[in-house]
Amino acid sequence: MGVARIGVSLEPELLRELDRFTRERGYANRSQGLRNLIRAALTARRWQALESRVLATVTVLYDHRAGGVTQRLLEKQHEYFHAIKSSMHVHLGREGCLEVLVAEGKAKVVGKLINELRGLKGVLRAEAVPVSPTLP
Predict the structure, then answer these.
(1) pTM for the whole structure
(2) What 3-state class would DSSP assign to 88?
(3) If you count Cβ atoms within 10 Å of the first and of the last residue's Cβ in the chain, which end, N or C, has fewer?
(4) Are residues 120 and 60 in the same domain?
């Protein structure tokens, strides 16, 4: 895969921030840092377009002692079977559990799933990490 070279003009403070970002993330050079910043911005833009295809991991933290929460989570996953590609369950002790889902589909559908998971009694957190559904 080839790359295209471009020139970018930045204010000195912005360049210092880019260099700091590049170092902190362990990128080999500014180009890697810029590529990943651009990918993140384009992924965020894709999530705003409700009809676009998105991909995310969804992490759900819940108290399994909350009456029926495990069953409600399972029912919600079956309701959205077309968007959920995979799931993993982790026991965090006697009361806490973590569910990690890989969801793919239209942004409005995946977003609705995440909001519905957040609304379930017993769910303490439901957070998504969006990623690009295509390789660069």
Answers:
(1) 0.74
(2) strand
(3) N
(4) yes
N-term to C-term CA, the chain: 9
Q: Which domain does 17 fall in, by range?
A: 12-48
Write down the H helix ranges in the chain: 12-25, 30-48, 69-79, 107-118
Per-residue pLDDT tens for 40-64? Answer: 888 878 777 778 888 999 999 999 8
In a domain, 7, yes or no: no
Angle at 82 between CA 103 and CA 109, to 5 degrees: 60
Edge-to-edge strands of the sheet including 84-91?
A: 84-91, 96-106, 53-63, 123-131
Same domain, residue pair 107 and 121: yes
